Every structure is written in C-alpha cells, then in structure tokens.
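Notes from hallway chat w/ T.B., transcribed later so I don't forget. T.B. wanted the structure written out for a chain they're using in a teaching module, and asked if we could keep both sequence and structure tokens in one place. Agreed to drop them here.
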Amino acid sequence: MKEDNEVVIDKAELRRMSKAERRELASLLAELDEPSPPERAPANAAQANAAGPGEPTPDRADPFQYDPTLRRERRLALLVSAACCVVLAGWIVVLAATLPHHFDAHHWRAVWVNFDVFLLAAFAATAWAIWRERQILILLLVLIGTMLFCDAWFDVGTSLATSGFVISLLTAVFAELPLAFLAFVGARRLLWATVAAGILAGQQVHAGQAAPVVAVTGTDKWGQAGTRDRVGTDPCLRRTRLAGHGLHEALPRGRAERRAERAGRARQSA
C-alpha cells in the first residue's frame, strides 16, 4: 500500500501543474475510463436496432443525419446565402458604375454620434458579460470587433485628402484595429473552449458516464449537454456560463504555458 500511495497525485501537485498538463491528465483519465470498442459494439448495435429512423443513437450522433427539419433548415440557409452573394455582387457593380466621386452627406453629425452611442452600448454589454462570465460574450466580442473595423474603415476612408487623415490613421492603427483583433481572438478562443467542452461531454455520454446537466432556470428546458443534439427549447446565452476555464480561455497564453502544451503534445505523439 505504501508503494502505491507514493505515486498518487495530491491536490498540491495538481495546483503546481500547468493548465496544459491538467488537460493532458484529464484526457488520459477519460481514455482509461472509456470502454474498449469490443465492449461497446453490442450495446451500440442493440441501440441502433431499437431506435427508430428519426431517433438519435451514439453511432448516429450528428443531428443533420437523422433530423429532417435540420436538413431543410440547412438547405434553406445555403440557398439564402448563395442568393445574397449573387445579389450583392450585382449591387457592387451597380454602385461602382453609378456612385458619384463627391457627395454632400446630410445628418453627418447624427450618423457618427449615433454610431458611437451604439459602440458604447456594445462595450457596456461586453463589460457586463465579462463580469458575469456569460456565453453571450462570444457574440458581443464579434460585434465589437466588427464595429471597430467599420469605424476604422470609414474614419480613414472619409478623411482622405483632409487635415484629419493623420489622426484618423493613427487612431485606426493604434487603437481601433488592435482592439478589434483582440476581440476576434478572444471570441475564437472562447468558442473553441465551448466546442471542446461539448465534445468532452459527448465522449462521457458515449462511455456510459453521467453527462453534465445544465441548471434549469426560469422557463428554460435544458437537457444533457454534449450529445450534439438540440440541448434545449429555450437556451439563453445571457444565463449560460462560459465553458472551460471561463475568461481564462480568452486571455493570451504565456510563454511557459505554450511550452508546456507543446511538451504535452510531444509526449502524446510519442
């Protein structure tokens, strides 16, 4: 017993481990708990035979493979996107041929003041989502990044050949574009953490473990996460917490953490 206890990792050792090392340990533990393919094959075959043509099974986890409604929605979205591309391409040709080189804009002050008011509201909503660590932060970061890019584009484009061009260019290069880049990077990292958490939960379900259950609040009717199916009839991003390690997923990684992740991947490949 003493020899076995010497190799047990205690809480202090876990705290000293980097995030990459803890992730590697968690993935290894999940692999050890997962049944071997021969053990799962009979159960999955029985489930596939018992399930109806429109019901999901672990072997048929993609909802687009068995849900006709989702297939219709995807085809409709594809048709709408393709039609928008065709219409927009034609509209660009029309604008390039008909727009004048000079134009006196009306309500110039109202347009820019209202745009900045909307940008301020987006920053305030983002600050609230950061404080509460809610999933809607991903959408708000994308919104802020897009608005900042638009702000930089029109600031520089409308100030060409004017005395304010230098200020507009410096503001875009050193303020608006870097903030937009950070917003997009943070949204990408948070989205990746959310997808990774869903995949891990789905692996736990297929391995026979209990899947994490999302708390039911108000009128929400949530089910188990990680099944790649519709998780609820009324999912609210304002009330759903961020997946993974929360806001830590959106922060830039340090050099030591990146080195530890590369070392962990090298050990896994070996």
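Follow-up for T.B.: Residues 165-206 form the longest helix (42 residues). Might be a good example for the class.
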